Amino acid sequence: MRPPYPPPPERSAELRRRFAEEARSERPDLSLLCLLVGAEADGELDEAGMDAAQVELDSLAGQLPFRPGGPRAWAVALRELLGERYGFRGSAADYQRLESSLLHQVLVRRRGLPILLSVLWMEVARRAGAPVYGVALPGHFVVGFGPAEEQVLADPFDGGRVLTGGDAELLVAGATGAALEPSMLAPADPLDVVSRILNNVRAWAAARPERTDVALWAVELSLALPSHPARLRVERARLLVQRGDFVDGAVGLEEYAELISGVDEGAAERVRGEARAARAMLN
């Protein structure tokens, strides 16, 4: 199976317009945003394919028991359906595949990164009426059910295993060496989930210098989110230079230098130097 490649420029422009519009809507649709990311990654994912993915999520939700009970009953029902019956889970090898960050591919392969499997769990559970949300533990994304005082956590990467308090503490300690703080168990904002997915895509691309195409669309989608770190602007500019677009890259570098000059003039001058070097490549 060949790795996915982005769509033609005109299709990409339309996808990015829709992504920015949805991200700025009053209640952003997490599944739609993830599918738009998938379509930007995979030129073979057309409108029919995106619709089919939504239909599949609806179908899975329709197979859950009707209001099975409290938070734990919901967690168990999702585990039995998605983890046990359909075999959705993850493994170490999934971290090496771009498809593991694309919702439509996770639906087909039944494999993915913790955050994408959690999106699947959340979207299926939400459609069925469950009190569900994402929980962005440091280094490992999981799903939460119910209010804080009754919260039940499940790990979709481990087939939906229902976690005890000790399990969550071990996950955090394993990722950071730190103790579990109550604030870590708060519901994750949908746009923060999308931002974290795009960070994973950028990390995948950073390890593969030949895939600057992936790095570029991931950083440009990140910049389309209402809130994003300013450093993404210089990352985009450097990618443009790396890809041979020296003029636009230099302009981006100069704009970033102007942005930070009042805070760190030394760093700004270094970035201006990068811009001059990029322009010199035109000679």
What does this structure look like?
It comes from Streptomyces caeruleatus. InterPro entries: SirB1_N. This is Protein SirB1 N-terminal domain-containing protein. The chain has twelve helices and four strands; from the N terminus they run ααααααββββαααααα. It folds into two domains: 177 residues, no CATH class; 52 residues, no CATH class. It starts with 8 loop residues before the first helix and ends with a helix. Strand 2 and strand 3 form a beta hairpin. The chain has a four-stranded antiparallel β-sheet, with helices on both faces. With 283 residues, it is α+β, with helices and mostly antiparallel strands.
Series of H and E elements: HHHHHHEEEEHHHHHH
Lateral strand order in the biggest sheet: 1-2-3-4
Specify the oligomeric state: single chain
Helix content: 55-70%
Radius of gyration in whole Å, from Cα? 20 Å
Biggest sheet descriptor: 4 strands, antiparallel
Number of helices: 12
Are there runs of 5+ residues with pLDDT below 50, and where?
none
What value does the average pLDDT take?
Answer: 94
Kindly name the structural category. Answer: alpha+beta
Number of strands: 4
**Total count of domains:** 2
The end-to-end span amounts to 41 Å
The portion of residues forming beta strands comes to 5-15%
Globular, elongated, flat, extended or rod-shaped: what is the shape? globular
